[in-house]
């Protein structure tokens, strides 16, 4: 669960916005950010190294952060959008969204697959992952960093749905209970190896039968 004061970022107000101003902020080792909320749209900057360190501790962008400022700012936030230069591995901009203490929040958190499906391990199946995130509703203090799904008992031809997730105190899953998360299927043709072998055997038997009939007819004609 999220600790409300654990992931803390110091923010500095900024008056200038726009491309040139943002480039100057980045050159100074900081990241331009904006905090959005009810009647709220404030530009700030945060330290680049500190932000990267917190993101590693937070296991991504779905954790709850606390923004503290010199002017008394103290806001709980979630990352709404994070822009990154993939080539230079550099964070360009972050949009934060305000979270109100004591009120439910609705967001998506990562779905983490645990174990190896029985249908893959013992029956040669293929695991299909149909969802990477789960939408939830909870109080800020109950926000989980991830949702775990144990697939060890998943057999060939079976699937796991939202209804199969382990209940978490104070957390509501917003997707339909019938929403499929993972499934275990056969080969690319949609059949298991054993089915392919059975099918091949049937074809061979049929071919042998046709050959015998042909030989019998030729014998009769002769």
Tell me what you see in this structure.
The protein is of the alpha+beta class and 222 residues long. The chain folds into 2 domains: 8-101, Ribosomal Protein L25, Chain P; 106-193, RNA Polymerase Alpha Subunit, Chain A, domain 2 (Beta Complex), CATH 2.170.120.20. It has 4 helices and 13 strands. Strand 4 (65-69) and strand 5 (74-85) form a beta hairpin.
Using the coordinates shown, work out and report the CATH topology of the largest domain.
Answer: Ribosomal Protein L25, Chain P
Compute the average pLDDT. Answer: 83
Q: Outline the biggest β-sheet.
A: 6 strands, mixed, barrel
Helix content: 10-25%
User: What class, by secondary structure content?
Assistant: alpha+beta
**Reading side by side through the largest sheet, how are the strands ordered?**
1-3-2-6-5-4
Note the quaternary state here.
single chain
Round the Cα radius of gyration to an integer and report it: 28 Å
Order of helices and strands: EHEEHEEEEHEEEEEEH
Task: Provide the β-strand percentage band.
Answer: 35-45%
CATH level-1 class of the largest domain: Mainly Beta
The appropriate CATH architecture of the largest domain is Beta Barrel
Q: Categorize the overall geometry.
A: elongated
Please give the alpha-carbon distance between the first and last residues. 86 Å
Question: Count of DSSP helices?
Answer: 4
In total, how many beta strands? 13
Q: Please indicate the count of domains.
A: 2
CATH superfamily of the largest domain: Ribosomal Protein L25, Chain P
Uncertain segments of ≥5 residues (pLDDT<50)?
190-195, 209-222
């Amino acid at each position: 669960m999220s600790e409300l004061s654990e992931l803390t970022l110091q923010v500095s107000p900024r008056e200038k916005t726009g491309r040139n101003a943002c480039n100057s902020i980045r050159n100074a080792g900081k990241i331009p950010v904006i905090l959005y909320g009810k009647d709220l749209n404030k530009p700030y900057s945060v330290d680049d190294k500190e932000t990267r360190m917190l993101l590693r501790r937070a296991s991504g962008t779905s954790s709850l952060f606390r923004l503290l400022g010199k002017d008394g700012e103290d806001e709980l936030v979630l990352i709404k959008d994070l822009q990154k230069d993939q080539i230079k591995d550099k964070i360009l901009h972050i949009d934060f969204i305000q979270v109100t203490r004591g009120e439910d929040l609705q967001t998506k958190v990562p779905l983490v697959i645990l174990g190896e499906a029985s249908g893959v391990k013992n029956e040669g199946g293929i695991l299909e992952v149909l969802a990477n995130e789960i939408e939830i509703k909870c109080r800020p203090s109950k926000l989980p960093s991830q949702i775990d799904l144990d697939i060890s008992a998943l057999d060939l031809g079976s699937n796991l749905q939202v209804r199969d997730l382990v209940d978490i105190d104070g957390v509501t899953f917003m997707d339909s209970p019938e929403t499929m998360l993972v499934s275990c299927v056969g080969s690319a043709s949609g059949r298991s190896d054993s089915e392919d072998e059975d099918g091949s055997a049937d074809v061979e038997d049929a071919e042998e039968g046709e050959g015998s009939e042909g030989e019998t007819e030729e014998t009769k004609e002769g």
